[in-house]
Design a protein that fits this description.
Blueprint lengths: L2 H24 L7 H12 L1 E4 L2 E4 H27 L5 H24 L2 H19 L1
Antiparallel strand pairs: 1-2
Helix pairs in contact: 1-3, 1-5, 4-5
């Protein structure tokens, strides 16, 4: 496989990850059980002061989820742009950082979320590492 193809596949994997994460974030207001509905209600109604604002854990959760949508989309676009010339000096500096980022992201997703999301980031990270060392 050519470096260009490896990075394009990694980009598409991260785009799929972005779409899946977006659906997850946008559907998080539909709890699957009454117990989870109560917990989510409590998370929305329990306010506390943080940096001069009254916030809730639910607002943090939603905000982090939306922020990650943008991060995943940026990674996907960056991989696609780097695939146009994966052997130039700038790409050779960015690829190892991006590869490590994706591998650490996959570890975090595995520990705190679920294996499917982690496997997508892991595969994309391995493709980026393969591009760099290949």
């Amino acid at each position: 496989m050519t470096p260009k193809l490896l990075l394009r596949v990694a980009s598409m994997l991260m785009l799929v990850h972005t779409v899946g994460h977006t659906f997850g974030v946008l559907s998080s207001d539909n709890p699957p059980t009454p117990e989870i509905a109560k917990l989510m209600k409590d998370m929305k109604e329990t306010h506390f002061m943080f940096m001069g604002r009254s916030v809730t854990i639910a607002s943090f959760d939603k905000g982090y989820g939306i922020t990650l949508i943008f991060v995943l989309l940026m990674v996907s676009v960056l991989l696609w742009l780097l695939s146009n010339d994966p052997v130039n000096r700038m790409s050779r500096k960015i690829l190892p950082v991006l590869g490590v980022f994706l591998l650490l992201l996959s570890l975090t997703e595995y520990i705190y979320f679920f294996g499917f999301a982690a496997s997508i980031s892991l595969l994309a990270g391995l493709l980026v590492v393969w591009t760099f060392f290949g």
